[in-house]
């Protein structure tokens, strides 16, 4: 199998998925403008995220955690959570989820 290289600016989420030959995980790239949040949600898999730019908070089960560029984040499975951009620039994150998450 050859490597797959896709640019987030040219592709919809998930950027890497089963269609690309990925056997276990999907990769997404998500941006939040200042003041924006992800949807408040819960699911049975963990999120693994890497903050590539900006800053904000990760809200998990009622507790806010500061996040910033360079942080690696693990959101436990079955945890109510969301990401919020509290900074003045775009908050960008790469998120890795199990393949079973597609369609949820």
Walk me through the structure.
With 104 residues, the chain is mainly beta. It has one domain (28-101): Jelly Rolls (Sandwich), CATH 2.60.120.10. The chain is 0% helix and 42% strand. The chain has strands spanning 25-32, 47-53, 55-60, 63-68, 72-75, 81-85, 91-98. A four-stranded antiparallel beta sheet has the order 1-7-2-5, with no helix packed on it. It has a three-stranded antiparallel beta sheet with strand order 4-3-6, with no helix packed on it. The relative contact order is 0.30.
- Helix count equals 0
Q: Low-confidence parts lasting 5 or more residues at pLDDT below 50?
A: none
Structural category is mainly beta
Radius of gyration (Å): 14 Å
Overall number of domains: 1
| CATH evolutionary superfamily | Jelly Rolls
Query: What's the CATH topology label?
Result: Jelly Rolls
Query: What is the averaged pLDDT score?
Result: 93
Distance between the termini: 28 Å
Helix content: under 10%
Level-2 CATH architecture: Sandwich
Spatial order of strands in the largest sheet: 1-7-2-5
String of helices and strands: EEEEEEE
Strand tally? 7
Question: Quick one: overall form?
Answer: globular
Strand fraction: 35-45%
- Biggest β-sheet description: 4 strands, antiparallel
User: At the first level of CATH, what is the class?
Assistant: Mainly Beta
Topology:
Elements: E1 25-32, E2 47-53, E3 55-60, E4 63-68, E5 72-75, E6 81-85, E7 91-98
Antiparallel strand pairs: 1-7, 2-5, 2-7, 3-4, 3-6
């Amino acid at each position: 199998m050859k490597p797959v290289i896709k640019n987030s600016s040219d592709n919809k989420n998930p950027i890497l998925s089963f269609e690309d030959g990925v056997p276990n995980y999907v990769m997404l790239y998500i941006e939040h403008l200042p003041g924006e949040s992800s949807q408040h949600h819960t699911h049975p898999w963990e999120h693994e995220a890497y903050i590539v730019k900006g800053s904000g908070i990760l809200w998990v089960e009622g507790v806010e955690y500061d996040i910033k560029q360079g942080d690696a984040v693990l959101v436990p499975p079955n945890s109510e959570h969301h990401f919020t951009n509290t900074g003045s620039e775009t908050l960008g994150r790469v998120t890795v989820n199990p393949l079973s998450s597609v369609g949820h």
